[in-house]
Each structure stands twice: as structure tokens, then as C-alpha cells.
Amino acid sequence: QVQLVESGGGLVQAGGSLSLSCAASGRTISSYAMGWFRQAPGKEREFVAAISRSGDITYYSRSVKGRFTISKDNAKTTVYLQMNSLKPEDTAVYYCAAGQRFGAVNHEEYDYWGQGTQVTVSS
Asked: Got the DSSP string for 52-111?
């Protein structure tokens, strides 16, 4: 079992950057495929990015590809999401998740979740 805690959210102007972190405790994150999801008010939870157990393979949704970068530090048991060129439509609560299958875009395939961190992008 693994516990996940996100941090780094906040308010930023359009075009700006934010860096999110997901700190894991319990079982090491090298045992899991990791992902970031987001959920805006009134919308379904949406896949953002995923990274393999080893950290050498990544996968992004079309809406964030080229702007966001997912990475992980297995030694520090932390997963990161660097978000650049932010847009108002990126506003959402961002969640870190751990699962078994790399690249899964369905949130139901992930077993463990953090509590989320709010990202607000103003126009």
C-alpha cells in the first residue's frame, strides 16, 4: 500500500508555470505506474500524464503534451508534474495516482490516490 500527498498548487496567470509534487510513503513508487489526473468543477476526472515504474517512459494527454512534463525520483519517492504555458482551461484539482498498468487513462485503473491540489489559472 502507498500513501500519496500532492503539493505545489496555487494561482497563476495564463502563460505562467507551476510545479506539482506528489510525495509517497509506504511502499516505494518504483513498484507502481504513476499518473496525474485533474478534475474541474462539474467535469469528469481527466487523465493528464503517466510515467512508467522505471521513469523512462512517459505518456501525455493531447491537451497538455508539449506543455507539461512528468518525472519521478524513485530515491526521493516523489513524482513531479512541471506545467508550463498554463491556460485558464487547465484550472482544476490535480491528483496523483498509483496503479499497475503504465499509461492507463481510465481513473478506475488506479488503486491509490492523493487528496489533490488546486491549480487556478487566471486569464
From this structure: -SSS--EEE-TTTBTTEEEEEETTTTEEEEEE-S--GGG-EEEEEEEESSTT--SGGGEE
- The residue behind cell 519517492 is 77
Q: Are 36 and 69 in contact (CB under 8 A)?
A: no
Query: pLDDT 10s per residue in the chain (123 long)?
Result: 899 999 999 999 999 999 999 999 987 888 899 999 999 999 999 999 999 999 999 999 999 999 999 999 878 799 999 999 999 999 999 999 999 999 999 999 999 999 999 999 999
| Cα 64 to the center of its chain, rounded Å | 11
Q: Which grid cell is 10? A: 496555487
Residue 52 burial (CB count, 10 A) = 16
The angle at the Cα of 70, spanning 67 to 71, to the nearest 5 degrees, equals 140
CB atoms within 10 A of CB 1: 8
Strand partners, 69: 82
Q: So what's the pLDDT on residue 27?
A: 79
